[in-house]
Amino acid sequence: MKVATHHLRCTECATVIQNDAVSSNFRCPLCNGLYEVLYSWSEGPTSPESRLPNPSALRWLWQERRSSTMAVDQSGVWRFRDLLPIVDDLEKVVTLREGNTPLYDLPRCAKAAGIDWLLAKHQGMNPTGSFKDTGMTAALSVAAQRGFEWVACASTGNTSAAMAAYAARAGLRSIVFIPEGKIAWGKLSQSMDYGALTIQLKTDFDGCVKILGELVQKFPIYLLNSVNPYRLEGQKTPAFEMVEQMDWQVPEHIVVPGGNLANSAALAKGFSEMFQLGLIPRRPKISIIQAEGANPLYRWFIDSNREMKPVTADTRATAIRIGNPASWRKAAKAIDELGGWCEQASEQEIALAKAEIGAEGIGCEPASAVTLAGLKKLVALGKITPEERVVLILTGHTLKDSAYTIDYHRNELFTDAENAQLSQAERIQHAALRKAPIVLEADPSLVLRTLESHMNQPQPA
Amino acid sequence: MKVATHHLRCTECATVIQNDAVSSNFRCPLCNGLYEVLYSWSEGPTSPESRLPNPSALRWLWQERRSSTMAVDQSGVWRFRDLLPIVDDLEKVVTLREGNTPLYDLPRCAKAAGIDWLLAKHQGMNPTGSFKDTGMTAALSVAAQRGFEWVACASTGNTSAAMAAYAARAGLRSIVFIPEGKIAWGKLSQSMDYGALTIQLKTDFDGCVKILGELVQKFPIYLLNSVNPYRLEGQKTPAFEMVEQMDWQVPEHIVVPGGNLANSAALAKGFSEMFQLGLIPRRPKISIIQAEGANPLYRWFIDSNREMKPVTADTRATAIRIGNPASWRKAAKAIDELGGWCEQASEQEIALAKAEIGAEGIGCEPASAVTLAGLKKLVALGKITPEERVVLILTGHTLKDSAYTIDYHRNELFTDAENAQLSQAERIQHAALRKAPIVLEADPSLVLRTLESHMNQPQPA
Predict the structure, then answer these.
(1) Do A440 and B202 touch (CB under 8 A)?
(2) pTM of the full predicted structure?
(3) Do A404 and A356 touch, CB atoms closer than 8 A?
(4) From start to end of A65-196, where are the E strands?
(5) Which of A313, A362, B73, B210 has the most other CB atoms within 10 Å of its CB?
(6) A402 and B129: CB-CB below 8 Å?
(7) Which residue of B lies nearest to A106 if distances are taken between CA atoms?
(8) Which residues of A62-149 form beta strands (DSSP E)?
(9) What is the reported pLDDT for A461?
(10) What is the pLDDT of residues A295-316, one digit of tens each?
């Protein structure tokens, strides 16, 4: 890898700065906007002096690296390092062999949604169980190269797990800031396991972000919240992987869960860079699905004035329970540029979709399942046609939220009043998927009779 | 792949049968022994008519497949299908892209154990979070090819999760038998998510196994307990992957957790087949580590009469809480043939080892951590020398048992009486690794002072 040659550009006022001139809170001093990483090819045809390999050479190189035993080649992020030259020294790359996630065929979910062909890119198969790993390998490598000893974020969930793992791998110390109050221990288990220090501050989540923003200006702590633009550089690589897995065919439509909205923006950046470089002939549409209880982008999308108004977030899909998404402008730009829609899904729709994905043998956390729930609506509305090739982005592993799965199958996820609102058809769908244990005497013939009665029941889908 | 040509041989009386002549309970009708899959090369030099590719050709083929986009090539099990020709039709292979698990360097754990060089092959990075996936892809592919519609196992943990996922993937129905009594819901969450039917029988675990054994003889249910020899064919492939990742170098020592003991046997089979075929010049030693509270193989190993006496199992490393291991003879044979030792680890030693592995940014379930705990003892006893290259087999992901991690860091895993038995050195080790949250006022300078005091504390190892 050559010397890292990239700039940072404010996504709001478009001011471009040297990459080492960025302030420690990653905010533009002129307009408080977020930065994005800019390369010579990000915006237009490659200039002659950039000497970037041509598309065929890149495709060949990326394929060759798959059979290498070097750690940076085994990583599904750093295998594409030609398009993320953000570290000078490959020795400084911090990797847990993230990426290389499977692209699964979902025939029964396709049928349920009313389309011919559906794939899922399962980012929950990353080392810590979520898509955050692809971003953290990038940002922690930058932190390690720049000589930081401490890194930090404000998060209770997937972000802190990924940060703690990569920090430990790099030999750095990590701090997780969370608001005081009842700790969600389950969510903290991974970051504690990976050795992070957890600090509970007597304030709310926004207060934690504020204190952290002050701290990084006084003390050499590298900030790893989603404002860090290098995380998006890692998170753009599943776009590369996906088209490579499809033998360089481009799907018509990508469907992404919408929480803090950095992921949609990152994937759009990945597709746009491939398009600029001539690696793909066109870009897919990107649609973003939010939970009804945490739907600020959806509201923006249907608002004729296109105003962003934060909401008080409430959904059991905790990974997207975000009312004031930091990266909404980047995501909005992605939808505007690539085409696509924003849709919302109810709690019941999310639960059904999660069970349908699980029944294909895959499983995901609730936030991932909004993609299937939203897809169904977009097909019903005619926004996606049956012959379009659609790829769902599943962001987290089913083990990330076992409690949700248990509550669903025990029929304890919703109140009776909530269930009473379901249609007859919806009730039948849930009943076919719900698998509460059956208690039987230890008698083979009784077990046999029970199985025979189950055998005659149709399988879901 | 050519037509499957393999036989089954009883591991006790050595009777060889045609693969389609096996009884539905996978037991030898003559002696009740377990079977193993036998190929022309399993036992000696390849016969001329077998037309198996030579070692260089195999190595080349396996490397080439890594850059293929076919599902069977992207699987870390089926990429080695030349050495597991158990299905006739590749279309029948059921895969979730298992295998291809990372081989991590553990420099700090190596130091803690007193050796120069330590690697971990992390089988917990498989799709359902445990090594069981490599076995289930093999056995479910056989079930699908043979036209079964139902599969079943008696299990509450990783086995049922893997079975349910692969069964769903194949479009088959799966049944999990568990004893009546309090359900460990967390352990069942995955198999419910993947659509398995759970039947609680009013009997104990052995009673479940017995009923299941009767059922499969009356009803076309394919048995997927560890007696199924095809599971071991999948579970041998991490041996292939490991030496390939090490550029065909062979480590001196493999350290494996010992529960039901099929996994140690499977890995030994993998190394032995490679050795027979000339793919590797020698085999590594295999050492098996058990929890003190579930140590029947350890007792057998130190017993001068070499008698196997089942024990009542009790350990928080639930994945190896097995007192009467089905595959103990196979594992005993592996130790005898390849060399190696059996060791046991206490609950406190397991907890410390798990935290040490976690602090390297990796994380695993408690059963996996017995490997590091046992390694320390084997080094202290001089059984493993500092310059030997050791590979730990980590069998499950840290997310498989979040509750254990939480209890450890909250210092609720052990009673005060248990903690009182620790030495001063052990207490210091635990204190350096334990990360209970700190509560602070939302005051940047206070946070800063707290961090500075932590900064001066040495990091573990």
Answers:
(1) yes
(2) 0.96
(3) no
(4) 103-105, 118-122, 150-154, 173-179
(5) A362
(6) no
(7) B169
(8) 103-105, 118-122
(9) 46
(10) 999 999 999 999 999 999 999 9
